[in-house]
Amino acid sequence: MKDNLEEIWYKPVKKIGMATLITAVIGSFGPLLYLYFTRGVYPPLDAALSAWALVAASFGAAYFVEPISYYAILGLAGTYVSFLSGNISNLRLPASAMAQEVLEVEEGSKKAEIIGTLGIIGSVITNLIGVTLAAFIGMRLIEVFPPIVVDAFRDYTAPAIFGAVFGQFTMKYPKLAPFGIGIPLILLGVFDAPLWLVILGAVFGTILVARVFYQKGLIE
Predict the structure, then answer these.
(1) Closest by alpha carbon to 88, among 116, 114, 107?
(2) How far is the CA of 171 from the CAs of 147, 158, 166, 168, 177, in angstroms?
(3) What confidence tens digit (pLDDT) does each residue in 78-101 have?
(4) CA distance 111 to 105
(5) Of 29, 43, 180, 192, whose CB neighbour count within 10 A is largest?
(6) How high is the mean pLDDT of the chain?
(7) How far is 168 from 98, CA to CA, in rounded Å?
(8) Which sign does the torsion angle of CA 161, 167, 168, 170 carry?
């Protein structure tokens, strides 16, 4: 079974996933190359490096945290699809987790990985349809809604999603919930730590606590 899964699942996933991501990386330079070859416009090297450094300083921690922390829920194929389509924490991750919960598969199993991937793919299709509709009618709806509704959508949609995901996993692992929320609160409120350190501390700190609890038999 393991050998069959490697042949029919993991090898094609790696091949297609790497090809699509590399294509996306190369394609992201398309507008720059177009402007350079057709208009002769290109940024100075020092300006480009400064812009990259600014982005790396803001999101550099995510380069390491997200692939490691999300992999347990997303799986191999889900990781490729999610990092290509985006909206990982607020859409792909909840979709994968909910698909696994609804079908009651064992977390971390091969079946859970496949089910989670199907949930992610479903979210991509739904997201594509929703974004397409929003592009045509979204602005008109926003103009009709009163400002209080527009402000609520803008300010509370993401926190509501994150809160729902946190609540979902809190029900499964209530002993870890205080650490999952407590570590970032302490880092922010007491030490005023930078955001990248808060992310690292919250993710790997909770993983460390979970490991200790598991070894002591406090959680399964």
Answers:
(1) 116
(2) 35, 20, 9, 6, 9
(3) 999 999 988 887 788 888 888 888
(4) 7
(5) 180
(6) 85
(7) 9
(8) positive
Determine which helix (DSSP H) or strand (DSSP E) holds 87, and give its type and residue range.
none
Measuring CA to CA, which residue among 167, 162, 203 is closest to residue 184? 203
Spans of all domains in the chain: 1-42, 60-172, 173-220
Buried b (16+ CB within 10 A) or exposed e, 162-181: eeebeeeebeeeeebbebbe
Considering only the C-alpha atoms of the chain, give the largest distance between any 2 of them, rounded to a whole number of Å: 65
**What was the pLDDT predicted at 1?**
56
pTM comes to 0.74
Exposed, middle or buried by CB within 10 Å (0-12, 13-18, 19+), for 81? Answer: buried
98-102: long-range contacts, CB 8 A cutoff, minimum separation 24 = 98/168, 100/73, 101/168
Mind listing the pLDDT tens digit for each residue in 33-76?
888 889 888 888 888 888 888 888 777 777 777 888 788 788 89
The answer to whether 42 and 35 have CB atoms below 8 angstroms apart is: yes
Q: Is 155 a residue whose pLDDT tops 60?
A: yes
Ranges of H-type helices in the chain: 2-5, 11-27, 30-34, 45-85, 93-102, 110-133, 139-144, 147-172, 177-189, 195-215
Tokens for 169? Answer: 């996993």
Where do we find the tokens 């992310």?
A: 199
pLDDT of residue 201: 86
